[in-house]
Design brief:
The protein is an alpha/beta fold and 336 residues long. The chain folds into two domains: 135 residues, ATPase, nucleotide binding domain (Nucleotidyltransferase, domain 5, 2-Layer Sandwich); 171 residues, Nucleotidyltransferase, domain 5 (2-Layer Sandwich), CATH 3.30.420. It has ten helices and ten strands. α2 runs parallel beside α3, α5 packs across α6 and α5 runs parallel beside α7. Helix content is 43%, strand content 18%.
Length: 336
């Protein structure tokens, strides 16, 4: 197969990223400029600030990605960009940068769904085999997606309210750890024990949907009630109890879905895929309950938002000739 090169751009939230991907599975570069420190004092991402940072960074990041990959624009087969879901102002910066590159160098433009990108981050590490099931867990999404080929996506389960990552950040603020809270809660959970036994919502129901708003409320109520009584709670045990409730539901429903769908692979994807507790529990559950199923977990640097995953997903569309035109716009509410 002749080499095909894609310049990929990702600006859906608070990371400005550009990458050059060869044949959908090899990273020639993957540059990520994080904005975490800018948003930390606000306890979450401020859309206007995120957009301003993208404007400042986008040209520099693209140039660095091209330079590190040591390729010219004439060698590119396409430029790919995240069209959604995400923050509309942030998306527009990447989309317009990609359209400018495509127009200036007369190369095809590919619009990529951010969630599909997270799934295909795994393709950069191991070959994805079908049919497969993907557990997508991030700040904005918690979904189980079944794929019987590289271009088909069937959502068989999703959150009915809050995403798992959103719940982590919210309870992180309640405990008082810095944003983003997920990493800190995960670290604390490994030092504590599940002593508070928070609810495992919908774990016994005959579907693959999730719900985390009740768990979030139970956690907040426990903390507030203790404060009113001047009781001192163990933060590490609180974190461990919260994480156990999240992980138990995610793993239980995922393993059930893998077996019902007779998937060859289980693919973990999204920012919360970096969670050590989830990675460990899923690994153990597959080993104990889903013999013969291969588990793919991306390395930590490919769990968060990055352009390499967008390039990997875009390669499938390049092969099928699925291109966008210059009317391409940011689509913040885009679904799989």
């Amino acid at each position: 197969m002749s080499s095909k090169l894609i310049l990929a751009i990702e600006t859906s939230c608070d990371e400005t990223s550009a990458a050059v991907i060869e044949n959908g599975n090899r990273m020639l570069s993957n540059i990520v400029a994080s904005q975490v420190k800018s948003h930390q004092r606000f306890g979450g991402v401020v859309p206007e600030i995120a957009s301003r940072h993208h404007v400042e960074q986008i040209t520099l990041i693209i140039e660095e990605a091209m330079r590190e990959a040591d390729v010219t624009y004439e060698e590119l087969d396409a430029v790919a960009v995240t069209e959604g879901p995400g923050l509309v102002g942030a998306l527009l910066i990447g989309v317009n940068a990609a359209k400018a590159v495509a127009f200036a160098h007369q190369i095809p433009l590919i619009a990529v769904n951010h969630i599909k990108g997270h799934i295909f981050a795994n393709q950069l590490v191991n070959e994805m085999k079908y049919p497969l099931l993907s557990l997508v867990v991030s700040g904005g999404h918690t979904e189980l997606i079944y794929m019987d080929n590289p271009g088909s996506y069937e959502i068989i389960g999703e959150t009915r309210d809050d995403a798992a990552g959103e719940a982590y950040d919210k309870i992180g603020r309640v405990i008082g750890v810095p944003y983003p809270g997920g990493k800190h809660i995960d670290e604390m959970a490994h030092k504590g024990k599940d002593t508070y036994h928070f609810p495992r919502a919908m774990i016994k129901e005959d579907n693959y949907d999730f719900s985390f708003s009740g768990l979030k409320s139970a956690f907040i109520n426990t903390v507030h009630n203790a404060k009113q009584k001047n009781e001192v709670l163990n933060d590490e045990n609180l974190a461990a109890s919260f994480q156990a409730a999240v992980v138990d539901v995610l793993v239980d429903k995922t393993i059930r879905a893998v077996k019902e769908k007779q998937a060859k692979q289980l693919v973990l994807a999204g920012g919360v895929a970096a969670n050590k507790g989830l990675r460990e529990a899923l690994t153990q559950a597959v080993k104990n309950e889903a013999e013969g199923v291969e588990l793919l977990i991306p390395p930590l640097d490919l769990c968060g938002d990055n352009a390499a995953m967008i390039g990997a997903a875009a390669f499938v569309q390049l092969e099928k000739g699925e291109f966008a035109d210059y009317t391409l716009n940011g689509r913040p509410g885009l679904s799989v």
